[in-house]
Amino acid sequence: MAKKILIIDDDPEILSYMEDLLKEEGYRTFTAKDGVEGISMAQMHNPDLITLDMDMPGRGGTMFYVKLRQEPSLADIPVIVISGVGPRPPAISKSVPVVSKPVESVKVLRLIKEMLGESVTE
After folding, report:
1. What is the CATH number of domain 4-115?
2. According to the UniProt entry, which residues carry 4-aspartylphosphate (predicted)?
3. What is the pLDDT of residues 66-104, one digit of tens each?
4. Hey, which residues does 31 pair with through a beta bridge?
């Protein structure tokens, strides 16, 4: 069964790009435009991994991450921050990788595969 990835970003172009990129690799994708919708989608779909933008209206990336880690059924889902924002917010664990925008597809796909325990081909 295909791994499920939740993409959270307020930029429709990034959502579309990431969705196309991940579907091409055989992943099932779900999207959310902010942290509130992201929590709802995470609860509904229990993804294997989440990509998270930091700077969004409403509940941004930091608040989403804190809420995610407080929910026992969601707390262990791996997260990759994909953001154009500056340094890592203190609330985001140092074990969470941060990828800067614009997204380098090869780099982000390698990171996703590593975090999901899949083999990485060169």
Report:
1. 3.40.50.2300
2. 53
3. 999 999 999 999 999 998 866 677 778 888 998 888 889
4. 7
Quote the tokens at residue 81.
């921050």
Domain boundaries, the chain: 4-115
Spatial distance between the Cα atoms of 20 and 115, rounded to a whole number of angstroms: 19
Contacts of 60 (CB under 8 A, 6+ apart): 34, 35, 54
Contacts 24+ apart (CB under 8 A), 24-30: 25/109, 26/2, 27/2, 27/3, 27/112, 28/2, 28/3, 28/4, 29/4, 29/5, 30/4, 30/5, 30/6
Tokens of 117: 């325990």
The one-character DSSP state at 91 is: T
CA distance 14 to 51: 11
> Which residue matches tokens 């921050």?
81
